[in-house]
């Protein structure tokens, strides 16, 4: 069992970054700008070498990244890549903590955490909710999951990279759960729905300026409805004196009939299908938020 300390400040480097793609490079550059000592490694060395002028030390062996840094951030393409990297190292020589920011599944995060626990390696898993150019800003978000004490020990450097970074829970898969829910199911679907709506309205002669003029009101109402949904989910209160799911079902079908003859109406078609399921499940007279009660098929 490795008996290394979980606290920072005992190694040669503040940070090692494994993976020098757009995001990994942004993380390294911002850390250097904020006066942290940083080493980098990339499978294709030329990407790492580009960071030398910014002050980074280029490592020739991936094992060096784990042996000399208080925190090693792994930001590669897939969990399989992470597994391959960990297979190359001696866990007993890992000097600090690992923060894996590679996109993956919650079960994969928990699997990697189990490997780390077995070998006595301090391990955090996370998800990046911003673009590379936002790294270093107050608006940037990095979600981190794992032991709270370990997060506290390394929170300063993570918050230097993303001002909005925060700890989402002790279960290592929690950050990926939030990533899939907020970025995948919510953000991506909302963006596709907006693009589909913009195409339909544009083809019908509505200008983007007209859309811009309505956006503040639409987004304000959107935010209000989202908070209402969260409150209803918290309290289990789905009775409503406003629009019931029957009203949404009828409106959705009207919108689908309106849009379908003029091109793909993928998102409203899928949404109307959800309304149909909800009504068939006996939720006809309940609030939109009652959709949360539908079981997965």
Describe the structure.
The protein is elongated. The chain is α/β, with parallel strands linked by helices and 297 residues long. It contains ten helices and eight strands. Helix 9 (245-259) runs antiparallel to helix 10. The protein folds into two domains: 13-176, 3-Layer(aba) Sandwich (Rossmann fold); 207-293, N-(1-d-carboxylethyl)-l-norvaline Dehydrogenase, domain 2. Strand 1, helix 1 and strand 2 form a beta-alpha-beta unit. It has helices spanning 22-33, 45-49, 62-67, 79-86, 106-118, 148-161, 174-203, 208-235, 245-259, 266-280; strands at residues 13-18, 38-41, 57-58, 69-74, 97-100, 123-128, 142-145, 166-169. 49% of the residues lie in helices and 12% in strands. An eight-stranded mixed sheet has the order 3-2-1-4-5-6-7-8, with helices on both faces. The model is unreliable at 1-9 (pLDDT under 50).
Described by the principal axes of the CA atoms, the overall outline is: elongated
The strands making up the biggest β-sheet line up spatially as: 3-2-1-4-5-6-7-8
What is the count of DSSP helices, taking H or I runs of 4+ residues? 10
CATH architecture identity of the largest domain? 3-Layer(aba) Sandwich
Quaternary state reads single chain
InterPro entries: 6PGD_dom2, 6PGDH_NADP-bd, HIBADH-related, HIBADH-related_NP60_sf, NAD(P)-bd_dom_sf, RedAm-like_C
Domain 6-phosphogluconate dehydrogenase NADP-binding: 15-169
Family: Belongs to the HIBADH-related family.
Keywords: Oxidoreductase
């Amino acid at each position: 069992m490795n008996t290394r300390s979980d606290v920072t400040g005992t190694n040669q480097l503040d940070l090692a970054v494994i993976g020098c793609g757009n995001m990994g490079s942004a993380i390294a550059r911002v850390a250097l700008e904020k006066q942290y000592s940083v080493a980098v490694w990339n499978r294709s060395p030329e990407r790492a070498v580009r960071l030398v002028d910014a002050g980074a030390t280029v490592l020739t062996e991936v094992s060096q990244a784990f042996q000399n840094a208080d925190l090693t951030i792994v930001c590669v393409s897939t969990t399989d890549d992470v597994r391959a990297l960990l297979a190359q190292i001696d866990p007993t020589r890992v000097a600090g903590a690992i923060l894996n920011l590679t996109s993956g599944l919650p079960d994969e995060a928990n699997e990697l955490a189990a490997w780390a626990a077995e070998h006595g390696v301090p391990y955090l898993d996370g998800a990046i909710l911003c673009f590379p150019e936002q790294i270093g800003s107050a608006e940037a978000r990095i979600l981190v999951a794992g032991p709270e004490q370990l997060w506290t020990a390394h929170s300063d450097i993570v918050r230097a990279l993303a001002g909005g970074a925060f700890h989402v829970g002790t279960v290592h898969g929690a950050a990926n759960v939030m990533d899939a829910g907020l970025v995948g199911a919510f953000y991506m679907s909302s963006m596709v729905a907006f693009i589909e709506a913009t195409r339909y309205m544009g083809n019908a002669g509505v200008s983007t300026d007209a859309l811009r003029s309505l956006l503040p009101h639409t987004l304000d109402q959107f935010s209000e409805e989202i908070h209402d949904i969260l409150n209803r989910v918290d309290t289990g209160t789905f009775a409503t004196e406003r629009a019931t799911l029957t009203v949404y079902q009828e409106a959705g079908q009207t919108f689908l009939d309106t849009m379908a003859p003029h091109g793909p109406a993928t998102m409203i078609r899928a949404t109307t299908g959800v309304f149909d399921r909800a009504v068939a499940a006996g939720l006809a007279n309940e609030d939109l938020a009652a959709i949360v009660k539908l079981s997965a098929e």
